[in-house]
């Protein structure tokens, strides 16, 4: 597996400075991560994609090296989508490919609606987008996210982590992974990213007004291909799993099943890369 080394860049955008990396050659593929994940989160996945794509990874505004001009200002899902559009404009003149996971998938759907034509294909893996769900389920999803915020506010990450694991159907004691993964310890940077994700970005999700019909209209108008996806081992009761099913129903398709659970892209990077290559190089699949 011979690929070029990753190159780091910065991009000034309204209200922030974004840190991003590029690696490989070929069509541009943006990876947008879940949770506290920054450009380092996909260190095991990118090398298995960079032989076929120019892979772009980045720190969302407010995470790690992507600094905010005014830290106290709220960050919205629209901000994140606008960042995607500006970031892709900096690296390509063509519609790009995108694989979004959880928060990243929700940002991808927001990008489809706000910036029609920027993406040619979006893989949307278990998007955290309550508005995809029926009213009662949506309210339940929002309440669950706010409960995690409350747990974090009162007890920090020690209290928030069990609530997040329950929310995503994760059992840390029995999680399976591929061998030889790069360790991802809970550093001070990751702790700060978790705090920003829970305290600020959960609010961006729960207050977002984007309606699924807007996404579908924009995708149809621009022939953007949206591929809903779930984890093979994610419990069907998990809200983000149900969001993927609801998205697939609106699009009249079936979700693609990825290896592992909600965080399968980091637990099974080799298998995830193989499936992504398959989906992104064959438009008849997914």
UniProtKB/TrEMBL annotation:
Instruction: List the InterPro entries.
Output: AB_hydrolase, AB_hydrolase_1, AB_hydrolase_fold
Gene3D superfamilies xref list: alpha/beta hydrolase
GO BP terms: namely:
glycerolipid catabolic process
Q: Which organism is this entry from? A: Streptomyces echinatus
Q: Name one GO molecular function term.
A: triacylglycerol lipase activity
Q: Where is the AB hydrolase-1 domain?
A: 34-132
Name of protein: Pimeloyl-ACP methyl ester carboxylesterase
| Pfam short name (any one) | Abhydrolase_1
